[in-house]
Every structure is written in C-alpha cells, then in structure tokens.
Write a structure and sequence with these properties.
Helices cover about 80% and strands about 0% of the residues. The protein has five helices and no strands.
C-alpha cells in the first residue's frame, strides 16, 4: 500500500509543483496511466486486507501490472541507457529493475502462500 501511496504522491507533486519545469511534467495520458496503476494497487491492497475472496487475485493482478510495468520500463531504459541517459545511469536503472523484480516476487510469494489461501478461505491462521 505504501508503494502505491508514494507513487501517487510523486505524480501529484510532478503535476502540481511550481518547482517542476513544464517540460518534465507528464502529459494527460501519461499522468492518467501514472496515477492509474498505483491507484489500482492501493485499492486492490485494501480489498485484499479486508479478506474479500477475490481480493488476493485482484491484488496479484495489481502487483503484476504495477511492478511489471516498472520492470518493462527499466529494461527498455537499460537498452538505451548508455546512449540517451549517459554512462553513469545504467547501474541505477539495472538496480531499479532488480528491485521491482524482487518486489513482484515477494508479492507472488505472499499472495500464493498456503497461509494466504487459508486466510482467504476463511480458516483461522495462527500467527
């Protein structure tokens, strides 16, 4: 949930801050997609925490969309990092792709575990 809130806050900052040059502000379509994925992640997380039967699958889909998009963006940047972004940025982009992969893996593990299945199945789960 925190990742979704942070992403939404960043996009709102980019759109509303006078300190951000107009050239760096996301366009309409980019802003909608940049707000849509983390909003979906946040809403799906709340639904999953409420224990709705479909909640973990909705959360899994949201995690795949959000973190998958980050991975794809970073992989595309890795290919162009040396030419478009400069030499020093490539390791940072690779680190972002690896971090997003870890975050997606953690979500997959947590949402598909037996304890999660029991939780959404209505069985009491011992801490």
């Amino acid at each position: 949930m925190l990742v979704g809130v942070l992403a939404i806050g960043l996009v709102v900052f980019l759109l509303a801050s006078a300190r951000v040059p107009v050239a760096l502000r996301p366009s309409g379509v980019a802003a909608v997609s940049a707000l849509g994925a983390p909003s979906f992640l946040l809403v799906a997380s709340v639904i999953a925490l409420l224990g709705k039967p479909y909640g973990r699958y909705l959360m899994l889909l949201a995690a795949l969309v959000f973190f998958g998009t980050l991975i794809i963006q970073n992989v595309q940047l890795i290919g162009s990092a040396n030419s478009a972004l400069g030499q020093g940025i490539a390791p940072k982009v690779v680190a972002n792709a690896v971090r997003a992969s870890f975050e997606l893996t953690i979500n997959l593990w947590a949402l598909l575990s037996s304890k999660t299945r029991q939780y959404f199945g209505g069985a009491a789960v011992a801490p």
